[in-house]
Amino acid sequence: MLGDGTRDARRTERYLDGLMAADGRSAHEFPVDTDLDPAIQLAARELRSGLTRVYPSFRFEDALATRLAAGAARLRSGQSLEEPGAAVVPGTVAPFRSHSALGVDAATDAADPSGSATLSAAPAVLAARARALSPAAAFRRLPDMAARPSRPLLVGGVGVGVASAAISIGAVYVAWRHSHTPSGRMGRAVRAAHGRATNPNHSRRAGVIDGILGVVS
Amino acid sequence: MLGRAEEGTRPARLDRDRGLVEAARRDPSRFDALYRKYLAQVYSYAFYELRDHHAAEDATERVFMQALAGLPRFEERVDAFIASRVPANPAEAADISTFRVWLFRIARNVVANERRRDRRRPVSPLEAAAELSAPDDVVDTATAREAVSEAWRAVARLPEDRRRAVILRFVDEMSTAEIAAVLDRSEGAVRVLLHRALRSVADDLASGERSGRLGRLS
Q1: Phi/psi of residue A40, nearest 5 degrees
Q2: CA distance A49 to A69
Q3: pLDDT digit string (tens) for A108-123?
Q4: pLDDT per position as a tens digit, A148-182
Q5: How many angstroms away from the CA of A95 is the closest CA of chain B?
Q6: Helix (H, G, I), strand (E, B), or coil: what is residue B200?
């Protein structure tokens, strides 16, 4: 004997099956079940019309298809699905070297001939490297570092670098404009007007004539 | 009553994706057909669960990569699922895809992990609904958006298990049997989940209508 809840659940399932089938046939009228609560029927229809299938972008679809094809090719050739470069390699400690640190490094290298100590290396080796890399040691090495060929330092990333370059180009252009008087018609007219304003002895008439001659010539 | 030989061949007849799956198992590059067939369904499931296009894309990629890698292990699962399930009628039997069930089990796990990791970045249902494409016509667009928003709001308020069942039923158009297999529940439990989900949505819609009427009156 079925309980009320189970009976209602079965009735709801039948209604949903009918609703999906009507959609599949593109039927305009939806099924009606007189025994099922009308509010539930309405909710089912609302969800049916509101919960639409969503499609990803073509770009994503094609990009993933390409990645899957590459993975399939690797599987076919007996490799793993992951790209070789994607595999995680064990971390290594590889300190920066300087001329003054060579002595320390020589000592530690003697203990670790491979040149790079793995994370599981002997504590003595790691302690020696830590001493070599301590802030005080680094500070003492500063003159050595300054003696090396310097490399440009870009602070703030590529965006800041590009902005800085643009400002520099702008400053150079302004300086060039100041040093080269304009030879165009407008430039001559401006020069004439400027000369009239700055030189009170220069008559207004002469200024106008200069301007006209400049414009005409 | 089926003989032993017939019982042995029945799974091959029932599974509508059997041909594609076998081709993909022989040659992994043939997996593309399965990928194209189920991309929108998996993506929709991920999108409705995660409510973010980028998160849905990430999850979809992970699902298909895991499916491709796990395809050699799929055969046993097919037989296990089909053996555990005797279809109620021939129409239902013709519609069963054990590959789809298996794929959505992967999707369920991937999305659950994603949700667990992504709880710190919730996206409102309305915001996600606004991203859904709608028809060009302005009135149709507004109506469609409104319908989508209402449905989203109602579904977003459902408890997790009911919401999953609703999405699989309405968006991915799965049968109760398939949903039961994806969610690792009995069919009876899924029926009850769906019924209770619809009851909650009905209550939500009724209260929304009441508050709308009050808003218009005030």
Answers
A1: -70, -40
A2: 36
A3: 444 444 444 344 444 4
A4: 444 444 555 556 566 777 888 888 887 877 676 65
A5: 35
A6: helix
Q: What is the pLDDT of residues B56-78, one digit of tens each?
A: 999 999 999 999 999 888 865 55
Please give the mean pLDDT across all residues of chain A: 66
Assess whether pLDDT exceeds 90 at residue B197: yes
Paired with A92 in beta bridges are: A118
Beta bridge partners of A117: A93
Across chain B, mean pLDDT equals 77
From residue A185, give the alpha-carbon distance in Å to each of A182, A192, B191: 9, 11, 87
Interface test with A, best of B198, B203, B204, B209 (most A CBs within 10 A): B198
Report which of B165, B186, B163 is spatially closest to residue B174, judged by C-alpha positions. Answer: B165
Query: CB distance A54–B64 less than 8 Å?
Result: no
**Nearest chain B residue (CA) to A19:** B170
Q: How far apart are CA B77 and CA B130, in angstroms?
A: 39
Tell if the pTM clears 0.80, that is, is over it. no
Question: Helix crossing, A4-24 with B187-217: angle to 10°?
Answer: 80
Q: What share of chain B is helix, strand, coil (3-state, %, to 5)?
A: 80, 0, 20
- Classify residue B107 as exposed, middle or buried by CB count within 10 Å of its CB (0-12, 13-18, 19+): buried
A133 exposed, middle or buried (CB, 10 Å; 0-12, 13-18, 19+)?
Answer: middle
